[in-house]
Amino acid sequence: MSTARKIFSNTVVQILGKVVIAVFSIFAVKILTNYLSPETYGEYNTVYIYLAFFSIIADLGIYTIAVREMAKNEEKVPLIIGNILSIRTLLATLSIGGACFAAFFIPQYQNTVIPLGILISGIGTVIALINGVLVSVFQTYLKMQYATLSLIVGKVVSVLGLAVIAFGLLPKEQFVSNPILADYGFYLTILVGIVSSISMVLVTLFYSKRIVTITYKFNLDVWKRLMKESLPYGIALILGTIYIRVDGLMLSLLLGEKASAQVGLYSTATKVIEVINVLPILFMSTVLPVMTRYLEDKNEKIRELLRYSFSFLFALGLPIFIGLAVMSYQIIYLISSPEYLTDYALGFIGSDWALKVLSGALFVSFINNLFIYLLVSVDQQKKLLLINSGAVLLNILLNACTIPFWGFQASAVITVVSEVFVLFWTFWVSRRYLRFSIDWASILKISIAGIGMGLAVYFSKNPVIAAFQNKGIVLLMLFGGLIYVILLILTKAIRKEQIQMLMRRQDDEKSEKAGVK
Question: pTM value?
Answer without folding.
Answer: 0.70
